[in-house]
Amino acid sequence: MRRPILAANWKMQKTIAEAETFAAAFLPLVAKADAVDIVLAPPATALHALGQALAGSNVALASQNVNPNEKGAFTGELSPDMIADVGCRYAIVGHSERRTLYGESSEFVADKAAAVLGRDIRPIICVGESDDEREAGQTFAVIGEQLQVSLAKIPKDRAADIVVAYEPIWAIGTGKTATPEMAQEVHAMIRERLRVMFAADGDAIRVQYGGSVKPDNVAELMAQADIDGALVGGASLEAESFSQIVNFDGGRA
Ligand code: PGA
User: Whose CA is nearest to atom 7 of ligand 1?
Assistant: First the structure.
């Protein structure tokens, strides 16, 4: 049984004060959610302060990005050591906004994923097809290729420490959620690929769905056999709304 994982990706939103206000409101609302993993990924400027606010709680800190190199001339970047230093236990890598806006390749994503694992930070490795790719019937081919390359450097014995996020680009921030059946179809294909790549160890890898997840659609998505969690943008910005997503099965979670 894979433990559900609900993660918030705040993208370029929230100051330090806003992140602290969120934590103060959010932590009491999810204090009883002990059967799920809860993750918050603030912008880099708020990592340290939010990490302090979450200390001792059941909520883990994540970075939205990382550079795979240890140190050196990489202006504007943060190393795995640096995000470990502020308390990150997860790092989102290969988000579609980074792939499309900043030209990040699956090879680069593979380096990031392997680098953070080396620091005992769990990578949340994002994959997803565009509208055009789906229209052209290329969804499985695109996702298959992204998985093959982005996960190529994960040692077999660390499979359980990675998370995959399936985020169809056409559903991100658009209000257009994939139907649970559409999402499940791709998740089942991802599960098959993970079994091919990692054999039985692949069954431990959690696969999140992302793309316009909200309090009112999370339960039906989570009810799908191969959906193990959610990566949430817009609906994670308010404590009330993200807490409802975390408590998706009515608080029993
Ligand atoms: P959204 O973003 O929930 O606002 O669609 C999801 C994501 O990009 O991770």
Answer: 233
In total, how many domains does the chain have?
1
Q: Does 123 sit in the ligand 1 pocket, CB within 6 Å?
A: no
Ligand 1 centre from 71 Cα, in Å? Answer: 30
- Residue 116 pLDDT > 70, yes or no? yes
User: Does any domain span residue 95?
Assistant: yes
Taking the C-alpha atoms of residue 184 and residue 133, their distance in angstroms, rounded to an integer, is 18
CA–centroid distance, residue 127 to ligand 1 (Å)? 13
Residue 152 lies in a domain: yes
- Residues 121-160: pLDDT tens digits? 999 999 999 999 999 999 999 999 999 999 999 999 999 9
Ligand 1 pocket residue status of 7, Cβ below 6 Å: no
Query: Chain-wide mean pLDDT for the chain?
Result: 96
Identify the pLDDT of residue 250: 60
For the record, the structure tokens of 212 come out as: 């316009």
Boundaries of domain holding 41? 5-246
> Is residue 253 in some structural domain?
no
Q: For atom 2 of ligand 1, which residue has the closest CA?
A: 233
- Between CA 136 and CA 97 the distance in angstroms is 21
- Is 70 part of a structural domain of the chain? yes
Any atom of ligand 1 within 6 Å of the Cβ of 172: yes
pLDDT over threshold 50, residue 176: yes
Just list the catalytic residues: 95, 167
Ligand 1 atom, smallest distance to 212 CA: 5
- In CATH, what number is assigned to the domain containing residue 201? 3.20.20.70
| Tokens found for residue 96 | 């579609």
Rounded Cα–Cα distance for residues 246 and 206 (Å): 16
Nearest to 125 by CA among 107, 140, 138: 107
Q: For position 1, what pLDDT does the model report?
A: 81
